[in-house]
From TrEMBL:
This is Sterol carrier family protein. It comes from Falsigemmobacter faecalis. The keyword Oxidoreductase applies. GO terms for molecular function: oxidoreductase activity. Gene3D superfamilies: SCP2 sterol-binding domain (3.30.1050.10). Pfam families: SCP2. Residues 12-94 form the SCP2 domain. PANTHER family: HYDROXYSTEROID DEHYDROGENASE-LIKE PROTEIN 2 (PTHR42808). Keywords: NADP, Oxidoreductase. The keyword NADP applies. Belongs to the short-chain dehydrogenases/reductases (SDR) family.
Length: 95
């Protein structure tokens, strides 16, 4: 397994995701995917309600609070496939 994906799993596992109802996949360019649902966070390429695609740098900025997810989306640094409602709900989980 990729050390980068393992680090993303560790970072997301520290977030309070209990309020998020659904599934999300974080597709990191050139690395793979991390999956989040009610069972927790894991490295997986399962189908999800929403898929977020970005570079590691962009995701790192979002997770650390230095990059606004909405601005990343508006500027094309973050791409979203699937439910926009689920994507919006993730914003509060990630901040």
């Amino acid at each position: 397994m990729s050390a980068i994906l393992e680090a993303v799993v560790a970072e997301l596992s520290q977030k309070d995701t209990s309020e998020y109802n659904g599934s999300a996949k974080f597709e990191i360019e050139g690395e793979g995917s991390v999956y989040l649902d009610a069972d927790g966070v894991r490295i997986s390429d399962e189908e999800a309600d929403v898929t977020l695609k970005a570079s590691l740098e962009t995701f790192r900025g979002i997770f650390e609070g230095n990059v606004n997810p909405t601005m990343a989306f508006m500027t094309g640094k973050l791409k979203i496939d699937g439910s926009m409602g689920r994507a919006m709900a993730l914003a509060s989980v990630l901040s």
